[in-house]
Specification:
Helix content is 29%, strand content 33%. It is an alpha+beta fold. Among the domains are: 131 residues, Neutral Protease, domain 2 (Orthogonal Bundle), CATH 1.10.390; 66 residues, Immunoglobulin-like (Sandwich), CATH 2.60.40.1910. The chain has an 8-stranded mixed β-sheet with strand order 5-4-8-2-1-11-14-13. The longest helix is centred in the last third of the chain and has 33 residues.
């Protein structure tokens, strides 16, 4: 008995030791297999925007020149960035953002070596005598391994892939985390380089680089090629990037609504060239729709660009990215790609009309999503428009207000709720109903075309509200606040108050609003104020049956 128990205990201990050893070996293997993602886990806390640092509040970024050599084997970069910045005040420190994964090896200000230190994903450049007001040119050399995107484009970084033919294929997505993911910058949506950016990328000579603006030149030395891309337009820092692939460039031309001839360039993988013509023709059709409602293509002096990438598309200025496996939905006999259309709509809503702070991101994403509904209206008619809007209404989760109560929100603050897309679009649908098409559509075009709202200027929710209130001749702020700054829905109460008489009242009324009331088989548009209305009807009347509002209806 004693010997049997002793043997059993020995085997139990042996099994436990083996289990621990196997676990440790599995952990080592897992760490080895996921070594490329260690950087990504290390920066998952990153987000763009937020409270602007006082040292950056005195900075006005004018231009970026970014030079990058990409080592595909090591998945690393060696780079330099020159930042042209105007200072409004004298300061002893210039502050730029760059994630800590890169080692900074040299810093110069106005061609003179400068002191610096890195801390908390920032570079502090210091001077004992201070930096004077006016223009300063800051030059920084650095190198390292960029973070690998965890779930591109939403959780960003570099994506290192091989195409189906075995060639290297690299995409960059940095909207959520900001330009600091690969170059020193002022990482805040309220400041874009007014004079544009130069992006100069060196890769193996058998590969091609797709970038923003116009391609200036390609130089090849030995087995490496350097692509110099340049945009003279103001541009969001998360759009200053590039993609690499075994690309074939398909070219075409489009004449805009204003008569400008704009080149179309599609950077498609050589293995997918059979799809190029259809993508370009779809883009031309989509452009006509977008120009009808929002005015001429915003970057007509440069190009309409598309780059095929191994992840969902993004709105990178003059070179949107696209990948939906070349599948299309047929609407009224026409092929349509929501991914391709949505990202192209962002050339107006994000790149041309840009929010001043992430807290107003619904302007970009909500109106960009509403543009899809207008595409359905043009391609499929009212029925197709109603169908997509019904989906946006149904998907409104109302977990948090679209516009946060706090100023200087981060990208994570607004995207975590999700409603900036569907509810943002449905808000535009409701606004259209409230003020009518004859006011809504011209005002929407003013928002996307007039100088105070576009290019170098930024917008907030208050700017949009004031524009529509003035155009409509009524105070729409209560309407904007209710839909965008709360999670409330209209509480419609229908109460029988006599023989075939019903009172209709909005329990949480905040302003008189029009409603479609259906009673006795007839529908009429009626204004309901705080006091409510009484209607005669054989049966309980229907209120807003078509669904112009987010609401809850109770019948008593």
């Amino acid at each position: 008995m004693y010997n049997s128990m002793k043997a059993k205990k020995f085997y139990v201990n042996l099994i436990s030791i083996c289990t621990i050893v196997i676990f440790l070996l599995q952990s080592v293997v897992a760490l080895s297999q996921n070594d490329d993602n260690i950087n990504s886990r290390d920066i998952l806390y990153l987000t763009s925007g937020g409270k602007l640092h006082p040292l950056q509040a005195i900075m006005d970024i004018r231009h970026y020149t970014i030079k990058v050599e990409v080592d595909l084997a090591k998945q690393s970069i060696s780079a330099s960035t020159e930042v042209s910045v105007n200072l409004s005040k004298k300061t002893d420190t210039i502050l730029l953002d760059l994630i800590h994964l890169y080692a900074v090896t040299k810093v110069k200000v106005n061609n003179k070596v400068a002191s610096y230190y890195q801390h908390d994903d920032k570079i502090f450049i210091t001077s004992p005598i201070g930096f004077e007001t006016g223009n300063q040119k800051v030059y920084i050399e650095y190198n390292g391994i960029p973070p690998v995107a965890v779930k591109p484009p939403w959780d960003g970084g570099f994506t290192w892939k091989k195409d189906s033919a075995g060639f290297d294929w690299v995409s960059i997505n940095i909207q959520g985390e900001g330009g600091k993911m690969y170059y020193p910058c002022k990482d805040h949506p309220s400041d874009e380089p007014n004079e544009g950016a130069d992006v100069i990328v060196t890769v193996p000579s058998h590969l091609v680089v797709a970038g923003p603006g116009l391609l200036q030149n390609v130089t090849t030395k030995k087995n490496k090629s350097t692509y110099h891309w340049k945009t003279n337009y103001t541009i969001s820092n998360y759009c200053i990037l590039f993609n690499i692939g075994k690309y074939k460039v398909y070219k075409d031309e489009l004449t805009t609504i204003a008569g400008t001839k704009v080149p179309i360039e599609y950077y498609v993988l050589e293995v997918d060239t059979a799809h190029a013509k259809k993508v370009i023709e779809t883009k031309k059709r989509d452009n006509k729709i977008l120009e009808k409602y929002f005015g001429e293509y915003p970057w007509a002096k440069e190009k309409i660009g598309i780059a095929e990438v191994p992840n969902s598309g993004m709105e990178h200025q003059t070179m949107i990215t696209f990948d939906n496996k070349f599948s299309y939905k047929t609407i009224n006999g026409q092929d349509y790609s929501a991914n391709l259309f949505h990202e192209y709509a962002h050339e107006w809503w994000a790149n041309k009309v840009t929010n001043k702070d992430w807290g107003h991101m619904w302007i970009q994403e909500g109106i960009g999503t509403y543009a899809e509904a207008l595409a359905m209206l043009e391609i499929g008619g009212e029925a197709a428009y109603d169908e997509i809007i019904a989906g946006h209404r149904k998907n409104a989760r109302n977990r948090m207000p679209i516009v946060p109560a706090v100023n200087e929100a981060t990208e994570e603050d607004v995207y975590s709720g999700g409603d900036i897309y569907g509810k943002g679009s449905f808000f535009m649908h409701s606004l259209r109903y409230v003020i009518g098409d004859e006011v809504f559509f011209p005002t929407l075009k003013r928002l996307s075309t007039e100088s105070q709202y576009t290019y170098d200027n930024f917008v907030t929710t208050n700017d949009v509200e004031k524009l529509f209130s003035t155009a409509a001749g009524k105070d729409l702020k209560p309407f904007f606040d209710f839909y965008l700054r709360t999670t409330n829905v209209l509480e419609v109460n229908i109460k029988e108050v006599g023989f075939q008489k019903y009172q209709i009242k909005i329990n949480n009324s905040f302003m008189p609003l029009p409603f479609e009331i259906t009673a006795n088989g007839q529908t009429s548009r009626t204004i309901i104020s705080k006091e409510g209305i009484t209607v005669s009807s054989a049966l309980p009347p229907q209120v807003d049956a078509k669904g112009f509002y987010l609401k809850k209806v109770t019948i008593q």
